[in-house]
């Protein structure tokens, strides 16, 4: 049976596994990780449909909002931000959620059902290298998505973020947390046909109640959403654009907690073999 990994990755994994009694070692592991990241990137960029829709949807949304809100002044939405200044970071946050949670859960469910994960698990490639490669890949895609949204927002007059360090830290926390949750949800999905429905069933209500598309003025709803992962990520992204804000450590702590929960569920429930029907 032919391996689904690139020849370089599989060959190097086997060589590393035979390289003495000490195993692959630090240099060997880093080389495997670099090749796994390259494999995930090539798989993504060589799939035009997946690539286009990953970037086109947030770009279309922010363009529409730019046409709606870019023509004049609007009320303050958050920390003194007007309408378009509010939606630029929240749409960027939604794009990260889609790339790191939605797509990852669907891809893993498909790879498991088609037997790719089972064959990959039989190779000497360490599991942590595989998942670290997925995480880095998702972060790279998220950075491109966020840069596109911010760039288009800037064309409509939205100032660039005032706290770049806070934006970078928030992006890493959010990507890691949503990746962990994506793997956790993938471990609960029984077949790939159900994956999009399961992902949207969880994602859509969270986005809706978290103020991604319009501010929520209900204190009860904000309190509830604040304990879930999407609203803290939105608020931390918004704060990186607002004057007088910056690092939102409480929101980052909520993201980290959900990342830990997702990782624990993934470790306990993730399956490499297809689930029996």
What labels would you give this structure?
277 residues, 11 helices, 72% helix, 0% strand, disordered N terminus
Q: How does this structure look, described?
A:
By secondary structure, the chain is mainly alpha-helical. 72% of the residues lie in helices and 0% in strands. It has one domain (27-269). The chain contains eleven helices and no strands. Helix 4 (83-113) packs antiparallel against helix 8 (195-209) and helix 4 (83-113) packs across helix 10. It is globular.
Distance between the termini: 23 Å
Uncertain spans: 1-23
Q: What's the number of extended β-strand segments?
A: 0
- Tally of discrete structural domains: 1
Order of helices and strands: HHHHHHHHHHH
Task: Give me the number of helical elements.
Answer: 11
Radius of gyration: 20 Å
Mean pLDDT: 84
Helicity level, as a percent range?
Answer: over 70%
Determine the structural class based on helices, strands and strand pairing: mainly alpha
Tell me the major beta sheet.
none
- Shape descriptor reads globular
Which percent range describes the beta-strand content? under 5%
